[in-house]
Amino acid sequence: MIWNGLWLTSLLFLTNLESLSDNETAIYAYPEIGCGVSQLSRSLLERMIRQQEDGKAHHVYEFVSTDVSLVCLQHNRDRDAAYIASLPDAATLSYTELNVVKELPACQMHKYDAILDKGTCDTFLFRSKRTQKGSASHAPLLKPLLNNVHRLLRSGCKAKYIIISPRSKLKSVRDFNGFVSVNRTKMSTDLLGDAVLVKGNAAHKPAHVFIYECTRNDSYQPDKDEPFADEGLTAINDEQSAKSVKRPSKNFVAMWTFRSRRDSMDSSI
């Protein structure tokens, strides 16, 4: 299924990343974690190839969709084989096995400009809720996930972790010290057509979906530094946020910017 609103939003963030580079010919590597049988990466690649056909810049795009399920990966390879074979030399789409909460292969470290997540963070939050005991304030399964996301992202380029979620609050993401900032964009699901955000939940369609744009904190050291801040974030109001963060379009509302040096708790995210 082509996720119209979702890939348009993701495309906006990826295009914004490209604008940070002065190089007219650059290589951009974008993995999707926990892809399942999604066509999100293919849809984004198709759109970005069409977008640059009339432009002056000629970038190289490397989309890598990852999952732990070999069955899903083979399904995707078979489904997209003809499309992959037709791609120009400056574009690649591949499906690769990756367990994002286990030790990562060295070849994947510090490689990517942005990581796409449409459901993986939500899945681990759900599993943590079912298995978590005691009064831990952060989902335990999100520590290895977020630390590995940090390891996958490149340094020195304001690399992004882009989460698409029906959840209005992601406390562990908000408090993760591996991000220097977290921006949340609220979008009406009317833009999504018949897309289903969470597997097994097709009967329930929330009124809104949230896009979290998390910028890598290059000074953070996974498994050495404390992963989560006990203190909350300082929220910037809508008027200030509009000045500091480019609003995607008139269809997107309620954007907040958060800083890594937190002075007070904001429970809205």
Automatic annotation (TrEMBL):
It comes from the Eukaryota. InterPro entries: SAM-dependent_MTases_sf. The lineage of its organism: Eukaryota, Sar, Stramenopiles, Ochrophyta, Bacillariophyta. Gene3D superfamilies: Vaccinia Virus protein VP39 (3.40.50.150). This is Uncharacterized protein. Residues 1-19 form the signal peptide. Keywords: Signal. The keyword Signal applies.
